Amino acid sequence: MMRTGLRNDNGFHRSLFLHRYSHHPTPMSLFNSWFQEKQSAWLYRAIAAAETDRRMRRLFRKLAEQAEAQAALWENRLKTEGSAVPSFNPTPRARLVGRLVRMFGPKAMRPVLASMKIRGLSAYSGRGLGTCHPMPTKAEDVGRRHRGVAGGNLRAAVFGINDGLLSNTSLILGMAGASTGTEVLVMAGIAGLLAGALSMAAGEYVSMRSQRELLEYQIDLERAEFAMFPEQEVEELAVIYAARGMSLQQARRATRRMMSDPEHALDLLAREELGVNPDDLGSPWSAALFSFLAFSGGASVPLMPFLLGLDVHRGVPVAGALAGISLFTIGALLSLFTGRSALLGGLRMTLIGGLAGMVTYAIGSLFAPEGSGLIQ
């Protein structure tokens, strides 16, 4: 029995075991494996037909041949078990994905194709296919180019704070336009903070959990296939590297060398064949808490003047000023990710927030009792 571990910087660790099927697979599991490979081959051909790049088209045609070969092996196992093999028909979902691929192109449909266990999607990333892709020499090298911008957490924090700041400032200004009651305004602001923060946290938890489940499902399938058909998996990975500009023979030699170490083989297959990177995933609970705190931090800014004892007449200008300064700062920080001018980014964000605040204040004023508006 061979063991492969996947770990990331957030502490996500899961031990994956490759085995040689000491038990006999059931006919249903054999049928599912056969069907998955047949459907993958069908989708590979659909992708190849929609692909305009000659090298990528050749890659997916080769992957279709590999999938058909693996399906034939599963079919032989089914016949050995005495099970009938029906004719293949793709599922309605696969047909829909095929139509979407023809409409929008394979590259635009990568997230959907990944959920269908389509290999070779990582060939779209990295350096252009027209140039030679540097062949990694160990599994860690493969993961390094998938990690992207190091400021991912900072970027998420900036957007979370911005959402909380903008939404709660607009809510508070809308309430100020409708009523001069400080207590009602504070209660509305606190309710908006909690509702928004809990919504963000729940959404982030569901999103992260779904990503984790998708990754685990895909790796479980890849693990079983690598245990049963290691040579075919090596060939598939070599074909992917060849699509990036290497000769097929060189890709085969390097792939065999990298996958000779069982500690890294499955990790390498997950990154390169499936295009999923375990390093990109963390704990759903941590992500939910992070989103809750970021949104709450932004949403608390316009509430502070009222929590410190200011009434509506004195607190609204202070809240507006604090929100404006915060929005300008956020816009300037976002320029770190866009490469644009910090001044222009700050002014744009302040203008957007100001317009949102004026619109909600004006709408609130329409519902204010006569004579009770903030501005007389």
Can I get a quick summary?
The protein is built from 14 helices and two strands. The protein is mainly alpha-helical.
**Measured distance between first and last alpha carbons:** 80 Å
Number of strand segments: 2
Integer-rounded radius of gyration: 27 Å
Count of the domains: 2
Annotation field: number of helices: 14
Low-confidence stretches: 1-23, 126-152
Shape: elongated
Oligomer: single chain
Helix content: 55-70%
Describe the overall structure.
69% of the residues lie in helices and 3% in strands. It is elongated, with a radius of gyration of 27 Å. Mean pLDDT is 76; it is low at 1-23 and 126-152. 38% of the residues are buried. Helix 6 (152-178) runs antiparallel to helix 13, helix 6 (152-178) packs parallel to helix 14 and helix 8 crosses helix 9. A hairpin with a 5-residue loop joins strand 1 and strand 2 (13-18). The chain has a two-stranded antiparallel sheet with strand order 1-2. The chain has helices spanning 27-50, 54-80, 92-104, 110-115, 139-144, 152-178, 182-228, 230-242, 248-259, 262-272, 284-300, 304-307, 312-338, 342-366, and strands spanning 2-7, 13-18. The protein folds into two domains: 2-148 and 219-280, no CATH class; 152-206 and 284-366, no CATH class. With 376 residues, it is mostly helical.
What tags apply to this protein structure?
elongated; 3% strand; two-stranded antiparallel sheet; single chain; mainly alpha
